[in-house]
Design a protein that fits this description.
Elements: E1 2-7, E2 19-25, E3 30-36, E4 39-47, E5 64-67, E6 77-87, E7 90-96, H1 104-114, E8 120-133, E9 142-157, H2 174-192
Parallel strand pairs: 4-9, 5-9
Antiparallel strand pairs: 1-8, 2-7, 3-4, 5-6, 6-7, 8-9
Length: about 190
Amino acid sequence: MQTRTEALRRNTADPAARTVEVVWTTGAPVRRHHFDDYTVTPYEERLAVTDKAVDLSRLNAGAPVLDGHRAGGVSDQLAVVERAWISSGKGVALLRFPDTGTSARADEVFALIEQGIVRNLSVGYSQDEYTDEPATGADDVAVRTVTRWTPHEISIVTIPADAGAQVRSGVAVRGAVARRVALRQSLAARLAS
């Protein structure tokens, strides 16, 4: 299972309904690594984000919203996906948290979302169809374009993988995202050498 990260939309948190609207993918390129025996080979993964490319059936069937991709039991589920859709090349969803008092952890996370402290998301998905393009030079990496994929869950996480991860309604986290992306790319380069 692959994962990608995005940012919560703070201004859409509705305390009465216990819902929040999120962007769970922008399709931004993400550096990945393929492990073949003892060789680590970097490549860039690109997701097509269209109605035709993304199979939303699992999300729209009430997929779980997990705490950091942990799926060890029911206690790892914080919320549920009420509805998911594609809009302007982005995956968007409405998440619903349980009623206040049902789960202390869900209450804590929802409060942090309302306050704008917790903002980042990741999506767990399977690649159903893709094409690979080899690297064209020493300073280039191979590219995998995923043309058909299925999201299985949405997770609330601390560090996003998608360089396009940001609070949809503002620019407050762009600098932090850029710093995290640069750090991640530096680590990937060290792993590759």
